[in-house]
Amino acid sequence: MSGERLFDVRVVALREEAPGVVSCELQSTSGELPSCPPGAHVDVHLPNGLVRQYSVASATADSYQVAVKRKPASRGGSAFMTDSLRIGSLLRIGAPRDNFPLVAANGRTVLIAGGIGITALLPMARLLAARGLDWTLHYAVRAPEDAAFKRALQDLGDRIRLHASSTAGCRLSIEDIVMQQPAGTHFYCCGPASMLDAFLAATTSLPPEQVHFERFGAEPTAGGQEFVVRLARSGQVLPVAADQTIVDALLAAGVDAPYSCQQGICGSCEVKVLQGSPDHRDDVLTEAEKASNKTMMICCSRACSPELVLDL
Ligand code: FES
């Protein structure tokens, strides 16, 4: 793991926000926490050794509130957070990472959330409301009772549109929403993979700087052609098998590699590329950053060229 700064926190509140969704307030045991912009997430280091990323729903000078949805096939992260945490439990967290920044320009902003994705968009809505800007938040759930943070959403008034797929005529159509907005609107989406796919399809003709999204729950990416990584600092040359990630190959060779989510969403495994052509598969770098090939996420991205030379 990278040598990032960690903060000791205590669980000071747990609340069931919706069936299977628990919010958890984490308060520093030793003073202030770094400021946390809307849309940021934190790494939570669990006592069972797992590190999981959670969006911050709200933050004060010394606490962050995160929300967790229990997954039926949990590999230990969401199950621990929803079932084993108690008031007073101690955890360690990283500093917030802002891979999903809010532009908050004067024009119109449309926020589109699905399921637990509301956690990232709720603080954006609060900020837009506080600044008196023009915005709407569309929140897709299966049934009205599945909506998390109901009280906080009610406080935001009639700019919140709840779309319950179980209610006739209420189903979310991202395509319709996008088509109805004025030119220059910024769109933000956070939700499951199917929602992100629909969002990207609906916004494909828009300028990329107006389209913002965060993908959660992506599958760890491996698979493809075998290639070789050369580590510029040590001169080591390591093969990366077709079913291995670069991080896997480095760790197998005893090389200390930075990583966290292993899903291409957190940015902690970013490494400089000195030579070669990466096959970018992450959701962190912008299209322009990917085209520049200056850095890559080694937990999921692979190589288009037979060899990559990395600044490791
Ligand atoms: S470890 Fe999170 S993006 Fe690679």
From TrEMBL:
It is an enzyme of class 1 (oxidoreductase). Its EC number is 1.-.-.-. It holds the Pfam family Fer2. One of its GO terms (molecular function) is oxidoreductase activity. Keywords: Oxidoreductase. The keyword Oxidoreductase applies. The keyword Oxidoreductase applies. It comes from the Bacteria. SUPFAM superfamilies: 2Fe-2S ferredoxin-like, Ferredoxin reductase-like, C-terminal NADP-linked domain, Riboflavin synthase domain-like. Residues 4-103 form the FAD-binding FR-type domain. Residues 227-312 form the 2Fe-2S ferredoxin-type domain. PROSITE patterns: 2FE2S_FER_1, 2FE2S_FER_2, FAD_FR. This is PDR/VanB family oxidoreductase. It comes from Piscinibacter gummiphilus.
